[in-house]
Amino acid sequence: MELDNKKKQLTKGELHYMNIIWDKDGASVNDIMEVLPSPKPAYTTVLTIMQVLTRKQIVEPQRCGKLHVFKPLLSRDEYISSFLEETRDTLFKGSMRSFLSYFVKSEKLSPEELNSLLEELKKD
Predict the structure, then answer these.
(1) Which of 12, 25, 50, 88 has the greatest CB tally within 10 Å of its CB?
(2) How many other β-carbons are positioned within 10 Å of the β-carbon of residue 107?
(3) How far is it, in rounded angstroms, from Cα 108 to Cα 124?
(4) Which residues have a Cβ under 8 Å from the Cβ of 106 and sit 6 or more positions away?
(5) What is the pLDDT of residue 1?
(6) 5 or 60: which leads in pLDDT
(7) CA–CA distance from 66 to each of 14, 54, 62 (Å)?
(8) pLDDT digit string (tens) for 10-69?
(9) How many Å apart are CA 14 and CA 57, to the nearest integer?
(10) Which pLDDT does position 53 carry in this prediction?
(11) Is residue 3 within 8 Å of residue 82, measured between CB atoms?
(12) DSSP, residue by residue, the chain
């Protein structure tokens, strides 16, 4: 699924809710509220965020008895891929080498870890 990044960008709060939905492969407002830490937001606050995610075409509400269960319209991997691609393009001028180099350096990977990672990548 090709993402329209302007429409599909998620705020930190929206992403938190989406992680719940992805973990559960769909969730009602009550399901989401169960997982949220205290102090819990109002039901209407959670519902408003779900309506925003629906307008952004990130989730789709499906009737399940009296409840609406919000189902993801894109996978976590699709979102991550789009997010990282945009990050690479905007912060690293499209350079995958610069993008990867940044993480290798900032995470201070040892030569052994780097070699292990390279071996893993060769298998795929």
Answers:
(1) 50
(2) 10
(3) 24
(4) none
(5) 44
(6) 60
(7) 24, 18, 10
(8) 999 999 999 999 999 999 999 999 999 999 999 999 999 999 999 999 999 999 999 999
(9) 13
(10) 97
(11) yes
(12) ----HHHH---HHHHHHHHHHHHHTSB-HHHHHHHSPSSPPPHHHHHHHHHHHHHTTSEEEEEETTEEEEEESS-HHHHHHHHHHHHHHHHSTT-HHHHHHHHHHHTT--HHHHHHHHHHHHH-
- Give the span between the Cα atoms of 27 and 56, in whole angstroms: 17
- b/e map 58-74, b = 16+ CB within 10 Å: bbebeeeeeebbbebeb
Query: What pLDDT sits at residue 5?
Result: 46
Identify the pLDDT of residue 84. Answer: 94
User: Which residue type occupies 47?
Assistant: L
pLDDT digits (tens, 9 = 90+) for 73-118: 999 999 999 999 999 999 999 999 999 889 888 988 888 998 998 8
Report phi then psi at 106, rounded to 5: -70, -30
Q: Encoding tokens for residue 68? A: 């609406």
